[in-house]
Sequence to fold (206 residues):
Amino acid sequence: NELLLNILPGSIAERLKNGETLIADDIDCATVLFADLKGFTDLSSKISAKELLMLLNNIFSEFDELLVKHSLEKIKTIGDNYMLAGGIPEPSDNHAISVAEMALDMLNTLPIINKNTGNPLQIRIGINSGPVSAGVIGKKKFIYDLWGDTVNVASRMESYGNDGHIHVAQSTYNILQDDYIFEQCPLLDIPGKGKMQTYFLKGRRA
Fold:
């Protein structure tokens, strides 16, 4: 039970235990975040595997605590990339706000970790909001995952963003613009998506 709840959202774990074999949900609007640690790959050539793992575990454990604070769902980690979402599996009216606050906290937390460990890591964050499909993939070592265009654009926001910045797509900006401060970015030409207007999230309005 405890292991299942560490792997899956509570409501999804219950559905599996109740015998549901195919879990696939369409969610009208969620907010997806990808975060990547810059400098981690370079660091891997300078310190031992054990030290590297301890550092990554330290950082991601801090992020996991922030997840609980903001009532969000961790989807997965891939190397030094961390993926989370708000508004899944249960819909939420404030999913974009929760993810924005999480992103700001992540940005503020990393310098503290760097000071304690003496490492100059930076974080690059991308966020997008919109419809997603969510479900449990596989029968062995299964995971709860998200897919769809919203997820792809969130990933692009991270990869085309700047270190130390929160790069936000237009749809998330539309939800948050009245409550947060943004810096408009130059139009981005993203392969497969064309020209996109994006923004850097700077902070909450006073």
Remarks:
- The first strand starts at residue 24 and ends at 38.
- The chain has a mean pLDDT of 92.
- The beta strands are 24-38, 73-78, 81-86, 122-137, 143-147, 166-169, 180-184, 188-190, 194-196, 198-204.
